[in-house]
Every structure is written in structure tokens, then in C-alpha cells.
Amino acid sequence: PKEIFLKDYTKPDYYFETVDLSFSLGEEKTIVSSLIKVSPRVKGSSAPLVLNGHDLKLLSVKVEGKLLKEGDYKLDSRHLTLPSLPAKESFVLEIDTEIYPHKNTSLDGLYKSSGNFCTQCEAEGFRKITFYQDRPDIMAKYTCRVEADKSLYPVLLSNGNLISQGDIEGGRHFALWEDPFKKPCYLFALVAGQLASRDDTFTTRSGREVSLKIWTPAEDLPKTAHAMYSLKAAMKWDEDVFGLEYDLDLFNIVAVPDFNMGAMENKSLNIFNSKLVLASPETATDADYAAILGVIGHEYFHNWTGNRVTCRDWFQLSLKEGLTVFRDQEFSSDMGSRTVKRIADVSKLRIYQFPQDAGPMAHPVRPHSYIKMDNFYTGNIVFQSNGAEVVRMYKTLLGSEGFRKGIDLYFQRHDEQAVTCEDFFAAMRDANNADFANFLQWYSQAGTPVVKVASSYNAEARTFSLKFSQEIPPTPGQPTKEATFIPVVVGLLDSNGKDITLSSVYHDGTLQTISSSSTILRVTKKEEEFVFSDIAERPVPSLFRGFSAPVRVETDLSDDDLFFLLAHDSDEFNRWEAGQVLARKLMLNLVSDFQQNRPLALNPKFIQGLGSVLSDSTLDKEFIAKAITLPGEGEIMDMMAVADPDAVHAVRKFVRKQLASELKTELLKIVENNRSTEAYVFDHPNMARRALKNTALAYLTSLEDPSYVELALSEYKSATNLTDQFAALAALAQNPGKTRDDVLADFYNKWQGDYLVVNKWFLLQSSSDIPGNVENVKKLLDHPAFDLRNPNKAILCLQTTIIQVYSLIGGFCGSPVNFHAKDGSGYKFLGDIVVQLDKINPQVASRMVSAFSRWKRYDETRQALAKAQLEMIMSANGLSENVFEIASKSLA
Ligand code: B3K
Ligand code: ZN
């Protein structure tokens, strides 16, 4: 496999101006014809034209209407090369290929999902459709003619506007689409099948009426109301916040059951994984509703950030993804609670991004090289969250208005261009005459910076000093790092817990006046000191408010300081953070007690601290739910020299049970006071109420006390929506035994007809931490509703397979105690699955193999077992480049 480097980027020798595609879709084969107007970048160029192509059967190539003979071109398994071309300002290239979508289980390129044709081209799937310069800096205007059997495929969709349609002989019909905007081929899309649409309209603020359509099988249409609501909310929000209007008369969304990722932003024809479109109160949880809102927003926002302005090359992925993830985070914040959304996003960063940045796949926001670009879309749960943090820092530094000015300039300069991260940086800088010092390091250095903060108060001089030092740990290929620009939002609390009004700060020989209750310190060097003047008493500093930079922070704050911040900080995010820091410290100490066979005891102050948050009626209920949730096992393992999944698991369970037992009166009150018999409403107050009630219920049920088990059962039975019902099921499933088995069986019986709900049922069991879960998961593979075992069956009947794999296999790897079982059973299970799955779908297989990537973090026995599986995978026949890249980098 070949590694591709950013430093090797060169401009293309040829540009494509227009592309006319024609698809004749069939059951056995599909014929793709393309007619491309090509123009050399340099007049009179004699460079060869190299086209990418993968798994294609070439039927014919013509240049200026003339058929090329075999010796006139070169064909290998990945390229079609045309060595001699007319020395003209432009010429016409025509290529016919044959492809087999019904055999395409990679879900990349053109494939079939439950009988319908659909496409996925990002990053490099277009080369599985036809020979093309498959790179994002080739931007062309497209037309697309789709022809298919009319009864099997009554709906024919592609990008842009419908120009004409009609019947042709043999029971076939066609549709001709034209996209007026230039686009890279990764944004091309085609859908053909039996679909019905939910229709609506949106009038843009300049008065354009846009027709909105969400396509699904007819029986699913009732479940698309929330998706439509989300789309309209996103369209309005982008106008209000960024002044960005939709630019065509039609916007289509199609939901398909088989999809590698969450969704795809193809121009005017977004394609979605069904689980991110379909929702009803009975079949989707609050988390699903929130995810749908966020992802519908995300893909819609790409219309400007990604589609109108796109990436020059795939190393610039963050240009569109970091920015668009940031935009969807802001959208969801504005639609719900800003603090709670921030907490959720930072948790994801800690659970997924930070560990990756400390492992063999660590790469900067803008990678320097890749073997398979797909591997850089890390995880279907969250990706580019670091890129979004970088964009957020511009906003923190510039304020909302300054950030908006930067965005406006970015579009003024680059509309309909393919550009780089520096272009975005320059727009932000130039629009604000800003000094961004060494900010660009965020794009090129991998690894999470560790920032240490030491504070000291001088009573005589009435000054308070904060000394920062930063260090970025080495990562593969980057042994040493430079300092980067870290914005630190700071407030100082007086002894009553109120913010002190800051008057001035001394730094680097200059005194800066402030006059507000918080300020941004610009930390740009390895070591740096800031001194606040006129501070009447020793304050408690609240650092990195709102998580102002994606770093790990180590402070000299005492436990008392942290309890004080938990109780008083005006920055709600930092109240939550103080509780998390306390919990991490406390759990880490307990882990060492556990390892040394000392009895475990929970600090009563911690119980008290959480207890007062629990009964503080002025707080947002979802905030309380987050504040009483302990850091995950992975977060604790990340802090250990040698990760010990058994000890961490035992300790987390112990702390949970202790809290539950000490706070049971309060928890019970919460469950009782937060029920509702009203119909399900998706809004923040109701979601917050359910979140708090269900968190409390889970705590209580963990005690295995018959009265609480009874309570959870009755919540399960009386629930009027899936959020409450599933939460009660999950609470009961914590404890092995007959009640668990019965309620799981009851739930399956109830929902076996709905594959999205069944997938949740799989996920709940596979990610369970009950002892010896590997055996249960193996049994689930043989469950009639699961569909990977027989690859042939999977090929014929892809439906639901991929989401199931994520649920069953991905879920299993998410439970450290079972995946890392000391007898190696979890590793062996995953190793076998990866080898099987790689033959069906390399993108998904490589995501699964990532679970091994941090094997060196564990003890020697586990290391040897995991390494053996990685080696077994590496020796498999016909290994994909995707899995090769992850497995080989993990072993290196
Ligand atoms: N841009 C797509 C990513 C698709 C990548 C596929 N390998 C999805 C998104 O941004 O939501
Ligand atoms: Zn995106």
C-alpha cells in the first residue's frame, strides 16, 4: 500500500469544466457513460492525464469523438492513463464503464441498499463509479441522466434541478438532472428506487421558496416529522447566525438502511443512515432526537462550508469538517442548553479524541500523510472534534462579531473554490487585523497539549499570579513539539464564591487593563506568567472556562478549591468540570487501593458535594444529571501508567453503588417528582427532566434492592416513550439474573419488527459490563435478527448489517472489562470478526480493528494476547489497505 503525503501536493495538469454523466441502471450490471470537457492547466501541455478507477470494467475511451485503441492508453488495477492528448485549449473525453452495484458490499461508490440504488463518494468512492481525476480540487459543473426500470425504480434522483424526465421503451424511464454549481466529484450523488417523500417548503429570507423532500420507504414517512423540523430549523439558523441562505430551489434528503457513516452532504441530495432520520416517540430516544437535529443541521450546513467552498486536498479535511462540526455544535446549543451541549461535546473529546491522539493513529488536525483517507474520518460517533475545537478558539479569541467578519471574508474570497486551512486562518486574521501568534501549530502538531498551572497569592502586593507551562507529548513521527497558542479564559472567585471584577493583568512587561469578571489570557510560550493586580484576598481561580482550549489541564488546586468551584463557579461548565476532576482524582486513588487489596472507602465530602448539586433546584436538570455521572472507565485508564480495566471497573462500580446508597432518598424523590404522563415533547425542559429521572433510576437499580428493581420494572411497564422505556430496561440490565433475561426478552418481542430498535437492544447487551459477556455476544451473533455470520447472506441481504455491526461488535469493544478480558477471549472474538468483515466492508472492519490500537497501554499478558491478534490480522489473505494501515501502525 502506498502512503500519500501533503508535501507532495501538486496542482492537477488538467481541469474538468463540465461533466455529463449517464447511468443505465440494471440488475446485473450498470453502464456509466461520462462526457467530460477537459482543459489543460498550462496551454499546450503534453502531460499525460491520469484517471483513478477501481473495480471498473472499461468499455471504451474516446478523445474528441475518436475511439482509442488498446495501445493508445494504459490501464492498471487503479488507473487509466492517457499519454498523448490534443494540444488544444479544451477537448472532449468520453468514457464508458460497466459496474456491478449489487455486488458492492463496501458501501462505497454505487451500491444497493434494501433494493434501492444509492451512492457514497467521499472520500474516494467516485473512482468506483467511473474513471475520473478523483480529487477535490477538480471542480466541475455536472449533469446526470439516470435511466432504470420504471416499476422497480420509480424515483430517480441526482444533484441540482430536475431538467426533464420521461418514459422510454422496455418499461424503462429516465430523469435528467443539472447542478448549476461547480463541485468536486465526492459530492456527486444518485438515488433510484421505491421511495415516498414527506414534502414541505422553506422560504429563504430573500424570498426564494425552496421545496424540501425527505425520502424513505412509504411506511416510514410518519417517522420523518422530526427530521423535517430539524431541517427547517437549520435553514433558519444559518440565515440568522451566519447570513447564509440556501442556493437552489430543491433540497432532498434520502434515508437508507445501509450506510457506513452517519450521513453525507452531497449537493442538494443528502443521503442519511436511516437511524439519523427516522424517529417517533415510541421508537427513538431523546439521544436519537438530538442526534437527528445535530446531523441534519451538520449536513445542511455543509452546503456552504464544504460544498460552495471545498477542500483543495484531503489533508484539508478539517477546513470543512472542523468548521461544520463547530457549526452544528453551535446550532444544537442554541436549540437547547449551551452548557449541557458543551459538556457532552467535551466528554466525547475526552472519550474518543484524546485517546486517539495518544495512540499509534495520532495525527494532527491536518494530517501529513495517509494510506487510506477513510481512516481519517475517525469513528462514526464523532470525528474532527479536535478540528471543531480549533475553530471554536478563533471564536473565543475574536468574539461572535469578529468571528462572523472572518466567515464573511472567507466566502467573499473563496466562493466556488477548493482551498486550504491557511486560507481560512488568513480570512479570520485579515478580517480582524488579529495577531494569532503561533496558532497555526494547532493544524500541524499531533497530540494533546498538557498545560500545568501554578498559582500564588501575594497578600502584601495584592497580586495573584498564574504560571503556565505547556508540553505536547511525542507522537509517531513527531518526537519534539513547539509551543502553541492556548487561549485561557479565566475568572477569579472571592471567598463568597462571587466573581471578582478584574482590573488589570501584568504580562511580558506590559500592564493590560480589563474591567470584567473574566478575561482571556494568551498563552503562547512554553512557560509564561500572568499577574493580576488589586486582588484583595486569595481567590480561587476558575481556569479554562467553557473549556477554552482542547488540552489536558493539571492545576495545583486543592480538593477544597475544587469543592468550592463545584458549589459556586458562575461558569456552569467549570462547576461540572470541578466535579469531574474530583471524581477522577478520587477514583484513581481508589484504583491503587484496590490493586493493593486495601479496603475501599468513599470520601464523605464527595458524597456531600454531589448531594448538594442533586438537590439544588436552581440548576438545570440535565446539568444535574451530567454532574452526578462519573467519568468513564477509559478516562481513568488514560491517567494510569499501565491501564488496569478490572481495577477501574471494580472501582467505578463501587463508587456508583456507594453514591446510590448514600443518596437514595434524594434519588428516589427525583424519580418520583420527574415522571410525566403527558405526550412526548422534544424540548430541553422535558429532555432534561427525563435525563435526570433516568440517571437517578439507574443509580437506584444498581443497588439490586428488590424495591428498586420493582420500581424500575414499573417504570419500564408504564413508559409512554422509548426514552423512558429503554432507560428502565438499561437500568435493569445492569444486574445479571432472571429479571434481566425476562425484561430483555419482553423488549425483543415487543420490538422485533423495528430493526432500529432491535439494534439498540443488541447494543445494550453487547456493551454490557456483566461478567463473561463475550459468551453472550457470541450467542447474539447467531440470533435470527443478526446478519453478518454468513458473508454470502450479508451480500444478498445487506439490510441493517452495518448498523448491527456497530451495535454488536462496536458496542462490545466499548466495554473495557469484557473486551480486555484477561483470558484473551474478547481479543480473539474481535480478531476473528475483523478478518471476516474485511472481506465484506473494509471501512467498517478498519474501524473495528482500531479497538486494538492502544494495546501497549495494558499489562504484559494482555499485550501479548492483543499483539497476537493484530499479527493474525496482518497475515490474513487479501487484507484491505484500510485494515492494513491501522493494524500495521498499531504494531509499529
Ligand atoms: N462528510 C461525510 C463523511 C463521509 C466519509 C466517508 N468515508 C459525513 C459528514 O461530514 O457528516
Ligand atoms: Zn461533515
Automatic annotation (TrEMBL):
The keyword Membrane does not apply. Its EC number is 3.4.11.14. Coiled coil: none annotated. Residues 559-892 form the Peptidase M1 alanyl aminopeptidase C-terminal domain. Residues 228-441 form the Peptidase M1 membrane alanine aminopeptidase domain. GO terms for biological process: proteolysis. It is an enzyme of class 3 (hydrolase). It catalyses: Release of an N-terminal amino acid, preferentially alanine, from a wide range of peptides, amides and arylamides. It holds the Pfam family DUF3458. Residues 20-187 form the Aminopeptidase N-like N-terminal domain. Keywords: Aminopeptidase, Hydrolase, Metal-binding, Metalloprotease, Protease, Zinc. GO terms for molecular function: alanyl aminopeptidase activity; metallopeptidase activity; zinc ion binding. Its cofactor is Zn(2+). Residues 447-555 form the Peptidase M1 alanyl aminopeptidase Ig-like fold domain. Signal peptide: none annotated. The keyword Calcium does not apply. PANTHER family: PUROMYCIN-SENSITIVE AMINOPEPTIDASE. Belongs to the peptidase M1 family. This is Puromycin-sensitive aminopeptidase. It comes from Brassica campestris (Field mustard).
